[in-house]
Amino acid sequence: MRFALAWRILTYDKGRTALAVAGVFLAIVLVFVQLGFFIAVPQGGMLLYDRTRFDLLIASTSYEYQVQPGEFPLSRLDRAKTAPEVALAAPLYFGSAKWRSGEDGKAPDVFVIGLDPRDRIFASADINLQLSVLDRTNTVLVDSMTRSMFGPLTTGRTVEIDDDKVKIGGNYVLGTGFMGLGVILVSAQNFVHLFPYRQLDQINLGLIQLKPGVDPDHAAASLRALLGGDTRIFTRPELETHETAYWTTRTSVGLLFGSGLIISFIVGVMVVYQILATQVSRQLPQFATLKAVGYGDRFLNGTVIIMALLIVLAGFFPALAAALGVYAVIREETLLPVEMSGTRIAAVFVATLAMAAASALLSMSSLRRADPADLFG
Amino acid sequence: MIATLRPGRERRFFGFVPLAWRNLLANKPRLLRSSGGIGFAVLLMLMQLGFERAFFNASLEVIRLLDGDILLQRASKYRFATKDPFPGRDLEAARAVPGVASAWPLYAAWHELFWRNPADGENFLVRVFAFDPDHPVLSLPELDANLKDLRDLDTAIVDRRARRFLGMDPPPPAAELNGSKIKIIGSFAFGPDFENDGTVVIGDRTFAKLLPNPLGGPLDVELGVIKLASGSNPIAVKQAITAAVPTDLAVLTKAQLLELERKFQADVSSAGPIFAMGTLVGFVVGMLISYQIIYTDLAEQQPQYATMKAMGYRTRYLVQVVLEQAILSALAGWIPAWLVSILLFRIVGAVALLPLHMTMELAFISLLLTLFMCLISAILAVRRVISTDPAEVF
Predict the structure, then answer these.
(1) For chain A, how are helix, strand and coil distributed in percent, rounded to 5?
(2) Hey, is B359 helix, strand or coil?
(3) Does any domain span residue B230?
(4) pLDDT of A277-312, one tens digit each?
């Protein structure tokens, strides 16, 4: 009966209900988008990790986040290699250089990743296959997401990096994330050639692949004991927690999208409340009549709650579909891994129900004005 | 009473009956509800617009501080916050140009110097600016008092508004830069941007000690800050400087340098579209809410409008009343939202250390958007008044 009444009221004035649903739809899309960015930014910072294969990461104790990892001696990695659990220990070298062949004579900064081309560290088999090109002297692979200000990225083009001339050996698809406007891969030998003040025995990160069946937490504990105190070892979940905390608390990202999230939620509440309150005041004589014939406040309040739920549910599912579309656009534009997850849908759904509840509570005060005596005023 | 032929004109001669105003105040709870609804949409727009401006301003603020008319930098420098220095002798060539009053170097490091927070011993990358303390190139009044002490080796002035984990507020007596002990002799209030957590100002000798020229010899200059002699022709002097320095240097006015940075930020960051989208959603939601409000008002007041029509008031006058009412609703929503946003900007700005400022421009743009949003919905809703048939009322 409550449902029937709520349905009748909403379908009585279809235009108005459509308007309410449209408003809720927009508010929910906005919640999804703000949440998407809130999560996409740390994920952008995780891009390189997410797309490489490793079970444990060795870093310096001064590790801040991926782009500012600190340095530690290669000998630590060599010692890690002797552990029985370890299948592969791959060093990574990070550096930043001037790409002196940009458009309009500009020299944008390029993020340089040095590695051993024999280590198959990337999740993508395509990239692993291309790595052998790096064995040639002064040959680099360029990330295809490198910005247009770097000029054409055609294979075979010779470009100037700092004071060296290097040849583009090919493009690979990984994404630049927050590493920089452009990213290139080079062999460790070419890396120290590009950066004469860097030595091969000081590395930035060590990627550890474990033998099949080895428990990462267990291996991490034994490596910590083996390597001593001047390095830090992350398992994958620990790394993800660390990087996410960095991006959400150390930068303005958390506050920026967090406040957007709260405001879009409140806008949703306001829209539903507007519609409910108007409906209630328009139907006030009818509600008063119901009261006069014996229906209690609980029944009337229940009707308003069901109306609120119907409106937000009608808005939620189209909003979910639209958000999927928006996410696809963001993914394409930024190559950030913005994906819809079950937990995110559940979280926004709960927020949507809260929106309905808050607006229903707010409009119940107008319902209390439903006085049967007024009918004959 | 004999109705005049065109009663709508009457008010011009016999006092103004503020019908729209009375309609607005007729139902106080509804007024509260409508200004709340419109206000929140306005607040959403204001926050998004404010964040967008803060994002761009934070990276431009430091350029505005440069105390010069003309700036000299490497032509290949694609943004301010990147190291691309040039030899100091090129700046001396610019200084010799007639019409130049002074030309002094700014040295800078964005990614090379680590600040050790003395409170917890952790190291953080900081942005460091350096200059000759006898020839300061940043116009920060708070710096001037400490310039004398900055001549001493291993001294620094730090940013009290740096991110809190750097431990610069209150300034500690001493800290470390790249492992080298530094005496803190003062502080200034500046603030971080989206890439730099904090700023340290040091003297040129300290800078040379921390980051010596890799090729030996004197320091390379990041930016030449040039002041013109009073009465000289800026365009002519700028041309003369361009002719006097090598072609791999760019000679820019401050406005040009700001424009270069603005363009870079707009090109590479996704901040513009993100905040534009938030603003648009605020606008559309606001339109939906105000349409709803105006439509309901009109529906409730339909008998009154029909009566007025029967009395001979023209449709034009009735439409005018509706539009006036929409403008008043817009103001009733905008004013509280504007006041709340000033407060929110203060709080968020202090917590996030962002340059969130309520400017005239921001107030004007948001007011315009609000009026626009309410007027569009009034125009959509007004058809109801036009179709009012006096006969139907009875």
Answers:
(1) 55, 20, 25
(2) coil
(3) yes
(4) 877 877 888 888 888 888 888 888 888 889 889 988
Residues B112 and B159 both lie in one domain: yes
Banded pLDDT at B3 (limits 50, 70, 90): very low
Strands A164-172 and A139-143: parallel
Q: Please name which of B126, B127, B144 lies closest in space to residue B135, comparing C-alpha atoms.
A: B144
How many domains are contained in chain A?
Answer: 2
The verdict on B152 and B289 lying in the same domain is no
Residue span of the structural domain in which A277 resides: 2-45+252-376
| Amino acid (1-letter code) at residue A360 | A
3-state secondary structure of A240: helix
The Cα–Cα gap between B288 and B309 comes to 28
* Confidence bin at A335 (pLDDT 50/70/90): low
What is the identity of the amino acid at A286? Q
Q: Round to whole Å and give the CA distance between A24 and B325.
A: 25
Q: Would the CB atoms of A274 and B111 count as touching at under 8 Å?
A: no
CB within 8 Å: A23 and B288 = yes
Do residues B51 and B270 lie in contact, with contact meaning Cβ atoms separated by under 8 Å? no
Domain span holding position B342: 7-59+270-393
Identify whether residues A99 and A148 lie together within a single domain: yes
What distance in Å separates the CA atoms of residue B383 and residue B294, rounded to the nearest whole number? Answer: 12
Q: Model confidence over A49-103: pLDDT tens digits?
A: 999 999 999 999 989 899 889 999 999 999 999 999 999 999 999 999 999 999 9
Token pair for B132 = 């000759």
B119 close to B172: Cβ distance less than 8 angstroms:
yes
Q: Are residues A363 and A331 in the same domain?
A: yes
User: Structural domain tally of chain B?
Assistant: 2
DSSP alpha helix (H) spans, A110-151: 125-130
Whether residue A89 sits in one domain with residue A7? no
Q: How far is B345 from chain A (nearest CA, A)?
A: 11
Q: Are strands B223-228 and B70-74 parallel, antiparallel or unpaired?
A: antiparallel
> What is the per-residue burial (b if ≥16 Cβ within 10 Å, else e) of A261-294?
bebbbbbbbbbbbbbbbbbbbbbbeebbebbeee
Is-contact A50 A341, C-beta < 8 A?
no
Which pLDDT does position B17 carry in this prediction?
60
Q: What backbone phi and psi angles, to 5 degrees, belong to B182?
A: -130, 130
Backbone angles phi, psi at A213, to 5 degrees: 90, -5
Rounded Cα gap, residues A201 and B277, in angstroms: 48
Nearest to B366 by CA among B340, B337, B329, B327: B337
Which chain A residue's Cα is nearest to B81? A109
Give CA–CA dist A240/A49, Å, rounded. 9
Q: Read off the tokens for A16.
A: 């108005």
State whether A278 and B292 contact (CB < 8 Å).
yes
* pLDDT band at residue A376 using 50, 70 and 90 as cut-offs: low
What tokens were used for A360?
């229903």
Task: Sort out which chain B residues have CB atoms less than 8 A from A149's CB and list them.
Answer: 78, 267
Residues 180 through 199 of chain B touching chain A, CB cutoff 8 Å = 194, 197
| C-alpha to C-alpha distance for A213 and A215, rounded to whole angstroms | 6
d(CA B299, CA B182): 73
B97-119 as b/e, with b when 16 or more CB fall inside 10 Å? Answer: bebbeebbbbbbbbbebbbbbee
Query: Are residue B128 and residue B164 in the same domain, yes or no?
Result: yes
Contact status, residue A252 vs residue B275, Cβ threshold 8 Å: no
Count the neighbouring beta carbons within 10 Å of the beta carbon of residue A151. 17
Report how far Cα B356 is from the mean position of its chain's Cα atoms.
Answer: 6
Q: Amino acid identity of B295?
A: Y
> A68 and B125: CB-CB below 8 Å?
yes
